[in-house]
Each structure stands twice: as structure tokens, then as C-alpha cells.
Amino acid sequence: MIQFVQSFESEWLKRKRSLASWLVICGAFFTPLVITVAKIVRHGALAASSRLPNYWEALWKSSWESMAIFLLPLGAILASSLITQLEFKNNTWKLLHTTPQRYGVIFLAKLSVILVMMLQFLILFNIGIYLSGVLPGLLFGVSYPAEPIPVTYFMTENGRYFLACLPIIALQYLISLQFKNFLVPVGIGLVLWILSVAVLSWPYGHWIPYTYCSFNYLKDGPKFTHAFPLITFALGYFLLFTVTAYILYLQRKEKG
Amino acid sequence: MEQSYILETRALGHRFTDGAAVLNDICLQVPERSVYGFLGANGAGKTTTLRLVLGLLEKQQGEILLFGQPFGRNRLQALQRIGAMIESPSLYGHLTATENLLVLQKIYGCPKERIALVLEMVGLSATGSKKAARFSLGMKQRLSIAMALLHEPSLLILDEPTNGLDPNGMIEVRELLLSLNRKHGITIVISSHLLGEIEKMVSHVGIIHSGSLLFQGTLAELQQQRSAGGRLSLYTDDQSKTTSVLRAMNIQATFDGGKFTMPMPQQEMIAALAKELIGSGVSLYELSPAGNDLEAIFMDMITH
Ligand SMILES: Nc1ncnc2c1ncn2[C@@H]1O[C@H](COP(=O)(O)OP(=O)(O)OP(=O)(O)O)[C@@H](O)[C@H]1O
Ligand SMILES: [Mg+2]
Questions:
Q1: What is the mean pLDDT of residues A125-149?
Q2: What share of residues in chain A are helix, strand, coil (percent, to 5)?
Q3: Which end of chain B is more exposed for a tag (fewer CB within 10 A), N or C?
Q4: Nearest-CA neighbor of A86 among B99, B150, B163?
Q5: Which residues in chain B have Cβ-Cβ distances shorter than 8 Å to A255?
Q6: Residue A256: inside a domain, yes or no?
Q7: For residue range B182-219, what is the model confidence (pLDDT) as tens digits?
Q8: How far is the alpha carbon of A89 from chain B, nearest alpha carbon, in Å?
Q9: Which of A57, A117, A59, A60 shows the shortest CA–CA distance to A84?
Q10: Which residues in chain A are closer than 8 Å to B55, comparing Cβ atoms?
Q11: B235 in a domain, yes or no?
Q12: Does residue B191 belong to any structural domain of this protein?
């Protein structure tokens, strides 16, 4: 356990100033910024909307629209590929694999860094949503939204989105551990993501593991009839991919 | 003879997936507290051997013992005591020198003060916030050495550590390694393709050629072999007169590229030859030992 903590700290340091860590920040604030600007442009509607009983839920929905279908899956694809790519790009697998660490610890520490970055991303995104909800109002002297923030709803949804992107992270991690060339994991990731968008209305679409973020967004829609245990599917795929990734990682004949 | 080896391989063999055997029956024996020079031309198999020893390649044949223990089962304990640098520098380009060391410090759990200390040792104290990607090759090499030294290992494995260093840098690194060896008793395995480069620091030498170990022993033993197999080269202004002098003295010489070469004669014989040549009016331009370089020793070892 101490080993894992040390290893995680070490992995966490590597992420500093890397492209992946910038991506988290930019990705998280992108949509809230767009919404803020849109609200400022149409500031006439601010006063009316701040009195709505479902002010926060509506804001949540519109914030998540591009996020769930587009930014979150792509962010997960890029983040997990970039973190692993650090070792290939710098030629540091041989450094890492001659440190006295169990392979399992290295594997889990890296995966944990990606997962914590996803959490970071969600937290920043939530802060962004909050700011886009109150800042335009403050700017134009409109009263604070009447509805209290539906904390439980937000937290449940955050949790569901986090679980929904786990299969993407695990499969991308699996692929990017195997290939030196960064384009391979990113290319495969993009193809799977495009596929996942294409199969959303197909009855068996939920078997494609990259669909869950989109499905989680669509589930509250009026026309949505595609019922399946999303969390179970996501966790199942996550476990399957993680175990496979670990086995393949161990089997690598050249460790640097 | 009872000797404890800090690193030993027994009949180590390896072939890559694409075919031919790259290593055959390598039996390295690195005594404790030695500086072991691992020599070989490009593609001889130095890096492959060292990667196997560190567990970076999956072992296929033979045995590897580190600190007297089989490596496979004691991988972590052994790695804890080894500092390694394999071929091109392994650094995180987006991090500074200190941050690179910090990454390792977290894993080894060694005191943070070591970071400034090893940077000082390799002369990189003043790089501040400069990213490692912006370092010159020599600076990268130095940082890699610092990273290998961070956790005070008792065995250092360095694959061509002076690659890319200027002459001054080479001397500095050599002094540093020698002092580590003398003061702290650190065993050092250092690979190179130039004997001249490491001659001044090694106590033991292993020579690998096309995946086979041709020679292993102390530097003194190598020097004996070298003078036994060494040649003398002779350069004069007059080929025919020189030939007759050589014939008269019963020396077997070959003429090639304007110079004569011959098996190294006894010292008295060399003196006599010089006297005889000058006596017969030949201008003597050069009389020097030839084939002292590694390549010649290889050729010698392969042909004999
Ligand atoms: N990953 C690999 N796959 C296939 N063959 C390899 C691989 N790595 C090395 N080889 C082959 O193994 C042989 C030995 O290579 P190695 O890198 O050990 O040489 P070296 O002694 O370190 O040479 P250098 O002085 O150039 O560093 C070479 O013929 C090389 O082509
Ligand atoms: Mg090499």
C-alpha cells in the first residue's frame, strides 16, 4: 500500500505541465465558457430565467449536451493515451521498469492517475457550471437564482458519468500500453467513438462500450426507450478491459 | 579460487523474435568493488546483455545472479541496490532536472537532500527551471547519471555513459565514477566501444564480439594478451633497403599501405632494428606499436 502511494505520487508528478493536464483544464471550462458568453449576449433573458424552478437542472442539461456526447469521451481517449505516451515519448519505460516496483503497482498507479484526472475534470466542470450559472447574473445585477442547487441530483449524475467513461479509459489504457505510436490508440479511440455515436439509436447499441456517456445524457430525454443497466455494463466492461490490459502489459517481452 | 561476484551470468543466451541468436553463452563475472569495462563494437550485444541483466528483456536461456541471488525471484531487492542507465538518456522532457529526480525520489523514498547532492556531483546544479528536453546531449547524459546515483546504489550499470560528452566531460565523469568506486566501494559496470575511453578507469574487462564473450579478466591480463598479440609498424623512406635489413635480421614483416608491420619483437630486437636501419642509411620516420586499438585486439582474438 505504501508502495502504491509512493508510486502514485511519482506518477502524479510526471503529469505536471504535460499536454494531458492542460487538456483537463481547457476541456472542463470550454462548455461553461461558451454558455457564459451566450448568456451575456442574450442578457435580456437572464432575469426571467433566474426565477425558474428548474434553473439548475436546465443549466446542467445544456452544459452536459456537448460534454456527454463529445468532450468527455474524447477527453478520456486523449488523457489515457497521453499519460501512457509520456513513457514512450521520453524513452522512459526502461527507467521506470528498473525501479524497484512491482509491475502491478506501476500499472495501477498509472491507471489511478488517469482516473484522478477524470475526477479533477468533473470537479472543474462542476465549478464551471456553477460559475456560468451565477456570473452573468452578477454582471447584470440580476438576482441570484431562486432555486437552491440540487446537490444530490448533481452528485448522482457526476458519479454516473464518471462510471460511464470508465470503459473508454480502460480500453484506451490497454491499447496505449501496447503501442509506441500515439496515433494508434487515438485512431482506434476515434473510430470507436464515431461508431458509438452511430449506434445510439440501434437496439444493441449499448454493447458498444463507448456509448455510455451519451446514453446517460439521453436517458432523461422524452423519446428515450432504450432501457438497460448502464452502470452494470460500464463496470463490467471496465473490469474486463482492465484485467486484459494488465495481462497484456505483463506479457510484454521487451519492457524497455 | 573463492570469489564473490556481485553480478554473474551463466550461459546467457538470447535471440530476438526476428531470428538469429544475438547472445551466446555469455558468462559475465563482475567482482565486488571492481570497475568492469564491458567492451564491444556496435551491435556486439552489450546493450542486449545489460537489458537482460536488468530484467528489461525476458530471459530465454541461462542464469542471472545479482548480489549472489537469482535475479528472477529477487528482482525488487536487487533493483533497490542498482542504479542503471541504458543507452540513450531516459528523461521526462517536460520536467526540470530537479523534478526528474523527484520522480525517482518518491519511488525510492530517499532523502530529498540527495537531489541537490547528485546534481552537484554531475555539475548540473545551475539548470534551475530549464526543462530536460532543452538540455544538450551532454547535459542529458549527466542528468541520467545523476538519476542512476540518486538512491546510493551499490552497483552501477552504465551503458555508454560518456556518449555525447566533450573530452572535459568525459574526464569529469571518469573522475566521479572512480571516486565513487574508491570512496564508497560502488561496483561499476560500464560499457563502451572504445577501450581507450575507459582504459584509465577499469580494473576488469569483458570483451564481447558478435554475441560471444571473447575475453574476460583483469586489465593487466588484457594488457599481457595485447602485447603478446601486438604488432609493430615501421615506416621508412626506402622500401627495398628496409626489406633487406629485415630479411637479414630474420624478421617476418608484411608491407601494406606504405608501412611494414610485424609481430611485436623483443625490446632488444627493436633497438637493434633501429640501429641497423639507420646504419644502412635509411631515414626512419616511424617505429610504433600497431594494433593497440580494440578493433585489432578483436581481429587478433577472432583469428586465433
Ligand atoms: N529490439 C530488437 N529487435 C531485434 N534485434 C535487436 C533488437 N535490439 C537489438 N537487436 C540486435 O541485437 C544485436 C546486438 O545489439 P545491441 O544493441 O545489444 O548492441 P550494442 O553492443 O549495444 O551496440 P552499440 O555499441 O551500437 O550500442 C544487433 O545485431 C541488433 O541488431
Ligand atoms: Mg548499445
A1: 89
A2: 75, 0, 25
A3: N
A4: B99
A5: 55-58
A6: no
A7: 999 999 999 998 877 888 899 999 999 889 998 999 98
A8: 9
A9: A117
A10: 97-98, 255
A11: yes
A12: no
Domain that holds residue B291: 230-302
SS3 A187: helix
Better-predicted residue by pLDDT, A205 or B295: A205
**Whether the predicted pLDDT of B1 surpasses 80:** no
DSSP tag of A228: -
Kindly state whether residue A49 falls inside one of the protein's structural domains.
Answer: yes
The tally of domains found in chain B comes to 1
> Is B70 inside any structural domain?
no
B179 within domain boundaries: no
Mean of pLDDT values over B75-80: 95
Q: How many domains does chain A have?
A: 1
pLDDT at B162 over 90: no
Question: What lines the ligand 1 site, CB under 6 Å?
Answer: B 16, 18, 22, 40, 42-48, 193
- Ligand number with the minimum distance to the CA of B42: 1
- Note whether B204 and B30 are within 8 A (CB): yes
Q: Are A64 and A73 in contact (CB under 8 A)?
A: no
DSSP secondary structure letter of residue A252: -
Q: How crowded is residue B188: how many other Cβ atoms within 10 Å of its Cβ?
A: 24
Q: Which residues pair with B37 in a beta bridge?
A: B190, B205
Q: Indicate the pLDDT class of residue A111, thresholds 50, 70 and 90.
A: very high
Q: Has residue A199 been placed in a domain?
A: yes
- Return the residue in A6, A11, A13 with the most chain B beta carbons within 10 A, the one to mutate for interface testing: A13
Strand B187-192 vs strand B155-159: parallel, antiparallel, or unpaired?
parallel
Return the ligand 1 atom nearest residue B48 CA: 18
What order of strands is seen across the sheet that includes strand B254-256?
B254-256, B259-263, B231-236, B284-290
Nearest CB to A13: which of B75, B77, B99? B99
Reported confidence tier of residue B300, pLDDT bands at 50, 70, 90: low
Which pLDDT tens digit goes with each residue over B10-20?
999 999 988 88
Residue B45 has pLDDT above 90, yes or no: yes
Q: Which residue range(s) make up the domain with A150?
A: 2-251
* pLDDT of res. B19: 82
The closest residue, in CA terms, to atom 27 on ligand 1 is B42
Q: Is B281 left (phi over 0), alpha (psi -120 to 50) or beta?
A: left
How many Å is the Cα radius of gyration of chain A? 20
CATH number, position B243: 3.30.70.100
The verdict on a CB contact (< 8 Å) between B90 and A95 is yes
State the nearest Cα–Cα gap between A87 and chain B, in angstroms. Answer: 8
How is residue A182 annotated by DSSP?
Answer: T
